[in-house]
Amino acid sequence: MKVLMINHFPLEGSGSGTYTRNIAVHLTKKGHEVAVILPENTAAYAKVPDVKLIPVYFKYEENIEGMLPFNFPCFTTHPRSTKTFYDMTDDETNLYLTAFEKVVAETVESFKPDIIHGQHIWLLSWLAIKTGIPYIVTAHGTDLMGYKKGENFRKYADETAQGAKKIITISNDNDELVRELFPHSADKAVFMQNGYDTERFYPDPTTNSKIEEMFNIKLKKKLVLFVGKLAHFKGIDILIEALRLYESEYPNEIVSIIAGAGELETALKKQASDAKLDSLHFVGHLNSTQLRELYSTADVSIVPSRREPFGLVAIEALACGSPVIATNQGGLTDIITEDVGTLVEVEDAEGLAAAIRKEIHAADRSERGKAAAKYALENYAQGSLMNTLIGIYNS
């Protein structure tokens, strides 16, 4: 089977990008051919073995022939772009759609896909309608947030949902929201959770000295970790308040790391500075190897999101043997059980601080880490989910 995927973001730095890369890799392992159309803003973007990547270039730090005169837009932010869809002028939207429509048409002509798999019920998936090729679309959640926020984009989303053969939903919360926003397409919704790449995320504990050298920090007895976009809906400000509450109790025991980039970086660093959190370190956007080593070393990973459509970072942390404390909403409620982590209420800094204290001092901490890795492998390994996806394609 030939599968053409279209994504609104590069394959690194976003959940949908990671999702696209993961399923593309596993489709090729099963003998299928895959091409991916995507935005890029660097000529040195990461390639994927046996997958044909077709970039549309945007303005960033280098001059690339034929690039669009603005950076690629996001729903929130991306490590390499803070431009959002809601910032776009009508002229930019037209340039965006025209550039991708040309590439989609050329790729359909040369690659001759059997099916198109769009990521997000949004602008680029809408272009699949014009090809005449059967297409499905995955709702990732930020597109559903975008539907509520960006009224001028709703017509594209509505038509995308109407034309799709199937709409993949990635959590129970995500599924309910798709059915609510697109009631005339509700019968097309099919539930399939995300998976993680077992070749990238697995228990890989490293030495404290290597972590210290990598990030120029001094570790203590316990490591608390956050990974994700520095955006409002991720709730990092609540985590910082929780850190303030428990750090004073254990001044020489805990180091906390925030890994990620985004529009709130300056504000969050100021919040941490004002709270005099000397043991909190911002380390920026990391590659998968660095993340694996951090997850594997962390005593607990935190996902304090105000809204989280799925929560892939939670699964990647579990896969590396790190128990997870997450908020009791969205896709996280599908993932976190009391055997591998804890759920707390949204916006509850005191509850989050209490959960962190309990987790890092758990007598069975080592066993919980092993249980977390086993749980992720048995339930969320991408390879074991592929037959479901291929069945959706065949249908």
Account of the protein in words:
The longest helix has 22 residues, at 90-111. The chain is globular, with a radius of gyration of 21 Å. It contains 15 helices and 13 strands. Strands 3-2-1-4-5-6-7 form a 7-stranded parallel sheet, with helices on both faces. The protein is of the alpha/beta class and 395 residues long. α8 packs across α13 and α11 (312-319) crosses α14. The chain has helices at residues 15-29, 90-111, 123-126, 142-149, 154-163, 172-181, 208-215, 236-247, 265-274, 288-297, 312-319, 332-335, 349-360, 365-380, 382-394; strands spanning 2-6, 33-40, 52-57, 115-119, 135-139, 166-169, 189-191, 222-227, 254-259, 280-282, 300-303, 324-327, 341-344. It starts with a strand and ends with a helix. β9, α9 (265-274) and β10 (280-282) form a beta-alpha-beta unit.
SS elements, strand count: 13
What characteristic shape results from the CA principal axes? globular
Order of helices and strands: EHEEHEHEHHEHEHEHEHEHEHEHEHHH
Give the assembly state of these chains. Answer: single chain
Can you tell me the residue ranges where pLDDT is under 50 for at least 5 consecutive residues? Answer: none
Distance between the termini: 13 Å
Structural class, from helix and strand content?
A: alpha/beta
Strand neighbour order, sheet with most strands: 3-2-1-4-5-6-7
**What share of residues is helical?**
40-55%
- What about the largest sheet? 7 strands, parallel
Give the C-alpha Rg: 21 Å
Strand content: 15-25%
Mean pLDDT across all amino acids: 94
Task: Note the total helix count.
Answer: 15
